[in-house]
Amino acid sequence: MPAESPEPLDSSAGGSIDYLDERDADVDEFWHAILSGDTNMASSSRVARALFRHLPSEPRCKWCYAPYGKPFGPILGRLGFGRWEKNPTLCATCMHVMEEHQGGAEVELAVMFADLRGSTELAATMSPSEYTRLLNVYYGIAGAAVQAHGGIVDKYLGDGVLALLLRGYCDREPAAVAVEAATRILEKVSHRRDLPGDAGSLPVGIGVHYGVAYVGIVGQAGQPTNFTALGDAVNVSERVSSAATAGELLVSEAAMSKLEKRPDGAESRELTLKGVAEPVAAWSVRPALEEAGTNPVATHVATSGGGWCTVAVMRRGSVHPGVDLIRWPRRGP
């Protein structure tokens, strides 16, 4: 059952973490501090996320990372961190505090938009259940990559994933986290063995942009609300993604300029995007996606005790290189 609306819990009374320090500041200053990582105002929020992100398991509150799954989810749910009935992507305590401070702030952030190419045609080749399972694999890969270093999955949009990388939550430069997460997604969706039908890989294209957006709670008081980002930076990210082909990451110059080092093999592009007045300078990055296990080389064959054959196989893929030991019963003399 969805969690009821609790009052913020007081840690001094032995309850869970009252993780937002409420100060006598106006709402805009409060939100700007939370989103930009002002440790003087947001220290308790950062502590909560640092704690909860290490507790299994998915799915989670996208603000504080409180887990909903077992084994800790049911326990935290009793302490007020269960799913909020109006918006299950947030926990009850987070939603209560945010609604108490409804608003947001304009902040710089990196935005990542990943899109599954040809999803309509792909869905036509399998049953609805199989297609749902395929999307869940895709969502799981994207969610893990984004959250690994403090990113927020804003929403799943059918065949798209929108992620926000905020300075207040990322463990380093948000643009660098966005590019790393995007690269990881492209690596992980390549040459899968857990997809339904004949889908051996997921054709995903990704765009990353950096700019200013309004981030906070949107919606009217008393009505369903959501934590999200609005503005040109979000729109440009989606448009940049639409120009990326399967297996390609397009990084706008605005995002690339935030990185200490340009990814190897990055190629300059100029994008003419629908709804964007001026051409957008960008960089095309294609992570090495050779399948782990492709073109294996058997380096040794031997007969072990008990009549078994053992083959040491060197995997030459760039994703997970290493050695596999394969054994099977020996037949014949």
Walk me through what this model shows.
The chain contains nine helices and 13 strands. The protein has helices at residues 27-36, 39-52, 73-81, 92-100, 119-123, 128-147, 174-188, 232-242, 253-256; strands at residues 83-84, 87-91, 104-116, 152-157, 160-166, 204-218, 226-230, 249-252, 267-271, 280-285, 297-304, 308-315, 322-329. The strands form three sheets. Strands 3, 4, 5, 6, 7, 8, 9 and 10 form an eight-stranded mixed sheet that branches. Strands 11-12-13 form a three-stranded antiparallel sheet, with no helix packed on it. Strand 11 and strand 12 form a beta hairpin.
Query: What do we call the CATH homologous superfamily of the largest domain?
Result: Nucleotide cyclase, GGDEF domain
Largest sheet: 8 strands, mixed
CATH 2nd-level architecture of the largest domain: 2-Layer Sandwich
Quantity of strands, as a count: 13
Poorly predicted sequence stretches spanning 5 or more consecutive residues: 1-25, 290-333
Q: From the helix content, strand content and strand pairing, which structural class follows?
A: alpha+beta
Strand and helix order: HHHEEHEHHEEHEEHEHEEEEE
Continuous helix count: 9
Radius of gyration over all CA atoms, rounded: 23 Å
Average residue pLDDT: 77
